[in-house]
Amino acid sequence: MSVAALIVAAGRGARAVGETGCPKQYCRIGGVPMITRSIGVFAAHPSVRDILVVIHPDDAALYEAASGQFAGRLRKAVPGGATRQDSVRAGLEALAAAAPACVLIHDAARPFVDAPLITRVIQSLEAHAGALPCLPVTDTLKRGSQGRVTGTVDRDQLWRAQTPQGFRYEAILAAHRAAARAPARDFTDDAGVAEWFGLDVALVEGSEENRKLTTTEDLRIADDLLRPEGARAAATIRVASGYDVHAFGPGDAVVLCGVSIPHAKKLVGHSDADVGLHALTDALLGSIAEGDIGVHFPPSDARWRGAASEIFLKHAAAKVRERGGEIVHVDVTLLCEAPRIGPYREAMRARIAEMLGLAVAKVSIKATTNEGLGFIGRGEGIAAMATATVSLP
């Protein structure tokens, strides 16, 4: 089931004043822009394929600065409308090209959303058209008028709604289109639009941590909470290496770092023998101490005969992200006398960046010969060394 995340960040929160007039969603909490934290959780989730952010037209520069580290994972941002409902509809329309089965609609002002909550919403969509994360109301609720209490509200069936709210994509798109054509209604969230349209929306367990930051005081409290926690549990940087080698055999091309290069021979292996991707896969697996490529894709398994090594690399990247990790940088060195790597270097960088969901600037490809020495110097094969730098919580 393909899943897209739609993050709404087009508002102008009047109750929160940021850094020198900075819109709330770009204010820093714990030293990081709020929207960066919100995007990061979805970018790290293995089930989320596409991410699209709806922004205010005036915030393009702020958004680019705050989202740059996720450039390889994000679809082009779209401008929002006059209301939240207009902004969500604009985002849903823009996702049509991706054609996701489901969409998760999330407020950028909830930067403390976590992966388990996202997973619960996605799983609920297997049986329902919509899924609403929420928490029961535990405080006593009073009704009042002119400064006096007029009654007590029965809280027995009351819930506090959160985001991300998940929906079958085609259903919620149809609901929003219908709502736009109907007489003006004050929908405060997308579950309200879904209810009005008659969609089945399930209740899903929310999270007390998934608070919405609305006021300036909320921003201050969030910043205070994050800073001491960050000092105690700072991210761990891990650096791991990988190495692989494949011999030449009869053929007319080699596949290196996902790029087919014409050559008088090909590399021999159980899969496509992409020595560069094999080394990089091992480096990523090594960063989380998850063994090597042979453990996850044993050569004795016929399923992997002739398989594209892209499968192996994406699997390793997903394993890193399952741990809440972020791939900071990858570096591959190819050792061969031929073919020449230079003309294909940028294509290789672009392919690896695409596979890992990274900006090209975070991918390095180098090549060197063996000065005629050893099996590489004799033109008997190609070796590769790779290094992966990963940030883990």
Q: What are its keywords?
A:
393 residues; 60s Ribosomal Protein L30, Chain: A; eight-stranded mixed β-sheet
State the low-pLDDT regions, or none: 15-20, 228-233
Query: What share of residues are in beta strands?
Result: 25-35%
Q: Count of helical segments?
A: 12
Reading off the top of the CATH hierarchy, the class of the largest domain is best stated as Alpha Beta
SSE-based structural type: alpha/beta
Describe the protein's architecture and organization.
The chain has 393 residues and is an alpha/beta fold. The protein has 2 domains: 3-144 and 155-232, Spore Coat Polysaccharide Biosynthesis Protein SpsA, Chain A, CATH 3.90.550; 236-392, 2-C-methyl-D-erythritol 2,4-cyclodiphosphate synthase (60s Ribosomal Protein L30, Chain: A). The chain has 12 helices and 19 strands. The chain has helices at residues 34-44, 60-67, 84-94, 115-124, 169-181, 190-197, 216-232, 275-287, 293-296, 310-322, 345-356, 374-377, and strands spanning 3-9, 28-29, 32-33, 48-55, 78-79, 102-107, 130-136, 141-145, 148-153, 159-161, 165-168, 201-205, 236-250, 253-256, 259-262, 265-267, 326-335, 363-368, 381-392. The strands form 5 sheets. Strands 1, 4, 5, 6, 7, 10, 11 and 12 form an 8-stranded mixed beta sheet that branches. Strands 16-13-19-17-18 form a 5-stranded mixed beta sheet. Strands 2-3 form a two-stranded antiparallel ribbon. Helix 3 crosses helix 5 and helix 8 runs parallel beside helix 10 (310-322). Mean pLDDT is 90; it is low at 15-20 and 228-233.
